[in-house]
Amino acid sequence: xxxxxxxxxxxxxxxxxxxxxxxxxxxxxxxxxxxxxxxxxxxxxxxxxxxxxxxxxxxxxxxxxxxxxxxxxxxxxxxxxxxxxxxxxxxxxxxxxxxxxxxxxxxxxxxxxxxxxxxxxxxxxxxxxxxxxxxxxxxxxxxxxxxxxxxxxxxxxxxxxxxxxxxxxxxxxxxxxxxxxx
Length: 182
Fold this sequence. Notes:
By secondary structure, the chain is α/β, with parallel strands linked by helices. The protein has one domain (about 5-180): 3-Layer(aba) Sandwich (Rossmann fold), CATH 3.40.50.360. The chain is built from six helices and five strands. The protein has helices at about 15-30, 70-75, 95-100, 105-110, 135-145, 170-180; strands at about 5-10, 35-40, 80-85, 115-125, 150-155. A five-stranded parallel β-sheet has the order 2-1-3-4-5, sandwiched between helices. Helix 1 (about 15-30) runs parallel beside helix 6 (about 170-180). The termini are close together. Keywords: Flavoprotein, FMN.
């Protein structure tokens, strides 16, 4: 069965390592017949949640006018969410984190999401995978809270400069993970 997969990218560096990870996953998922949308949070203006609790009360997901209102319908149509991101200070970059925080609007607005599965694709300059524990734990807690099934985590360490990921097997792993989605 074909799934609608939304891939949120978090890097402000176009064509960088995490962007390439996202593209590899998308290529695999498309080969398996899934529909994908790639949404670059870094190219959008998504402000942080201010906890006004007026979500969906004014005809849009967020009462604060920003690009989350463009993203919200894509989230509503998705069966799976993929987070493709660089590691920033042991967590998500602010561009992606703001979008994640505004998932709160679906809870406050009592709007169910179809999303049932998720994936984390993360890369960074740090060599030691212990440095990625913070982002992985955050991802797992988000998935658990929202009752999403984790379908895979790919960590690509030691990729700092643009195209460093080409020297690893991470793109192959991401494509294989995309292909494996049922």
